Amino acid sequence: MKKLIFIISMLFLVSSMVGGFSFGQDEAKTSDLGTEQTAAVAEQPEEVVSPAPEVAAPAQEAEMVQPAPEVAEPVKPKGEPLYAYGKVTEVAPNSITISEYDFDTEQETKTVYTVDEKTELENITAVANLKAGDEIDIEYLEENGTKKATYIYLYTVTNYDDTE
What we know:
Elements: H1 2-17, H2 25-32, H3 35-43, H4 58-64, E1 82-92, E2 95-102, E3 107-114, E4 120-122, E5 135-143, E6 146-154
């Protein structure tokens, strides 16, 4: 019964929007007009109203709705810089290992970043001068599963303001 009432109300709504069911309004308009105007109105072609589209009942709509497919992680364009923050745990000639928080796993993880002569440094003169416990920011590019550091910023007592 609810489905029938829903369908009838939808049909009425759609037909009233396109000028369907008139319920005697046209007769009232033409009776107020003079005879010349009545004849002119009578000569006008009737408006053709196409049938309303079939509306699915709510129960049928629920059957038609399907869950969205799983969306794969977006592919990052090559060359888009990524950022990391953590404490240095190990320094090697061509890499730095830091302990950083992984928001996906909600755990501290150790991550290795490769470095080379093109890596920009701020507040430090050489990668070899880093020591365990130093806090750093790293800007890096991920290429073929390797995280290549392009910029390293060392926090020092004078530039690390935690009073805010």
